[in-house]
Automatic annotation (TrEMBL):
Reaction catalyzed: Couples ATP hydrolysis with the unwinding of duplex DNA by translocating in the 3'-5' direction; ATP + H2O = ADP + phosphate + H(+)
Binding site for ATP: A216, G217, A218, G219, C220, G221, K222, T223
Signal sequence region: none
Official protein name in the record: DNA 3'-5' helicase
Domain of life: Bacteria
Enzyme nomenclature, EC number: 5.6.2.4
Matches recorded under PANTHER family: DNA HELICASE IV, UVRD / RECB / PCRA DNA HELICASE FAMILY MEMBER
Catalytic EC class: isomerase
InterPro entries attached to this UniProt entry: DExx_box_DNA_helicase_dom_sf (IPR013986), DNA_helicase_UvrD-like_C (IPR014017), DNA_helicase_UvrD/REP (IPR000212), P-loop_NTPase (IPR027417), UvrD-like_ATP-bd (IPR014016)
Gene3D superfamilies, alphabetized: 1.10.10.160, P-loop containing nucleotide triphosphate hydrolases
Protein family according to the UniProt entry: Belongs to the helicase family. UvrD subfamily.
UvrD-like helicase ATP-binding domain: residues covered: 195-491
Amino acid sequence: MQIFRAHWMAPWFNHPFLASELTDHGVVLHLKRERHSVSWHELSAPPKLAQGRRLYRLHLYCTQGDIELGWLPKVVAESLYNAITLAWFRFQAARILPLAESCLKVLEQGYLRQSRWQQLQQLLTQASQFELQQAAINWATLTPPMGLSDREAAALGLMATLMAADDTWREQCCADYCQQMLADFSDLFDSLEAHPLTPAQRLACVVDEDHNLVLAGAGCGKTSVMTARAAFLVASQQANPEDLLLLAFGNEAAAEMAERLAQQPTTRTVKTSTFHALGLMILSKVNGHTPRLSPLAQQESARIQAFAQWLEQLCSEDEDYNLRLQNWLRLHRFQVVPQPDYRRVAREWAPIVTALKLYGEPEPADLSSELAEQLTLVLPLLHRYQHSLAEQGHIDFDDMIEQATELVRQGRFTVPWRYILVDEFQDISAPRAALLQALRDAVPELSLFCVGDDWQAIYRFSGADVTLTTRFAEYFGASRVTKLDKTFRFNNQIEQVASRFVQRNPEQLPKTLTTHLRSNSPSVHVLPVDSNSQIDAISRLLGQVAAEQPQASVYVLARFRFSLPDEAQLVAWRRRFPSLNIAVHTLHGAKGKEADHVIILGLSRGKYGFPPEQSATALLDILLPEAETFLHAEERRLFYVGLTRARQQVFLLADQQIPSTFVKELSGGGYPGVSKWE
Ligand SMILES: Nc1ncnc2c1ncn2[C@@H]1O[C@H](COP(=O)(O)OP(=O)(O)OP(=O)(O)O)[C@@H](O)[C@H]1O
């Protein structure tokens, strides 16, 4: 054991300190008549060396009161100082090591998500609660001495960094992570698709907050980003394929995603599902049997049929109901004689019944007397519907999502995923968002990745709530929003028209889209036609397209299914223009699809025009979440969806006598990208 002695003259001057020695436990001070031990534990900081006129003093910071060792010759003072400093740092490093290793484990998980950041802060706080002294040490201000092992130095360095870390440091960590991933996986992003991903698409794939929202414009490659993120997570070994779940709303979209994932060997086994299939799977797994889904839920036609029958029954059983219904129908210009068109009423009221079930009855104060009357007419339909489900032991999709959410909340379903990716997020409803939130809460490290475009939110009538997108962070908490603003589908001419049109509603999130394709001439054409000559006009347009671009694809779109050309007409066109790829869709059905040319028909005013002027939706409006103040807000977005299906040109067949207000707006000046054909 090395002894560090004070100057031989110390006792002569009655100085009590004679010598010191270092042990594993601390410093032993040899005083005149006794020995005094100071454990490493009691030293709250490294020692400090001070030079006197000829001799040195060493200051020890002790929790019981500071101690000064005087009368030290220079060589002794320096070596004692070095020895105590090194031993003190070693002692602290040994104490800190488990904490440093726990912090490192959090950091090694990758992107420093808000939840991981909180975990780190908790670790540091917990440690300082146990080790009060340690909390008082300001590691950031201390410089560790030479002689520490790499491990000790790293632990102390990490502590110094973490104790000084703030939000800016976290941001920097996230940015560094992204930069590293972008560099490491640039080959993957170059080669995954037929085209290399853009910088914005790549960034969207690697950002990995607890909740991620990718806000995109039409045609900006949302599907490419969904599948590329899945491939990236697997390639970077942050996830195995079975850790991932990709969710879509419709079967077709889920199937398309599955097909795209199957093209990569690493993502072939990634699970894709619709929300409904997910709900069904959760219920079946937990309950041990498949729930009995009502045919009324599965087939719209069956539901309408049942509602129509119940309306008829209600009228025949209850004369008062019959009279009130007839009055209401007359007032709203529905057919009443020879007898009411119950099917039509059923079709219009079905979404009201769904909304009533989902969101409950509105406050009476919110209803005019006319709407209150309508409510009393609709409520018996809801009661019969619920009664019929209960009687048959059936559930519908809303029940299924609600029950699945409850099972996840109760911990009865073991959530196997760590990454959930959701397509078309703008169309999510509150119950589906609650299911996502429950899944997320069940697995602390689960990250949500939602891709959507608030400009294309078109399912409010069936309960979708676009504010879950526009106020994503308020709903889900710690989030990061990335944007895709380069569209590959359409040219600048279509973009200018469509973006200006949709942004007339100031509630839409502002976006500036750039286009990959450019054109100098207008690409949105308004063709005034007589309502009876729409088919001829389409035939002429198809002929024109076939002559100029024989292999082109053409969509014929309409607001309502019954406005679309029938199957026989489609077959006739396909025969006449065999090289063209012609398809007909409702505007809702065309969502997510694209064609070279788009023809939109039925652009008139009236109850079944576009936008439809239907007073019957007033009650629905009150029931649905967050009524929109801008007139025809959702129809405007639907029109935007129609415009943005086209890669090259859009043809708007405007009713010559009563043109749609949307078309009047487009052709009335203010939209330089629109050409008007006479
Ligand atoms: N980085 C890219 N380079 C070139 N083309 C791309 C790129 N990313 C996507 N595309 C192409 O852009 C088109 C639109 O992509 P996609 O259908 O994924 O868009 P989207 O954002 O889902 O559109 P929407 O919301 O309108 O349905 C597709 O033809 C796709 O191949």
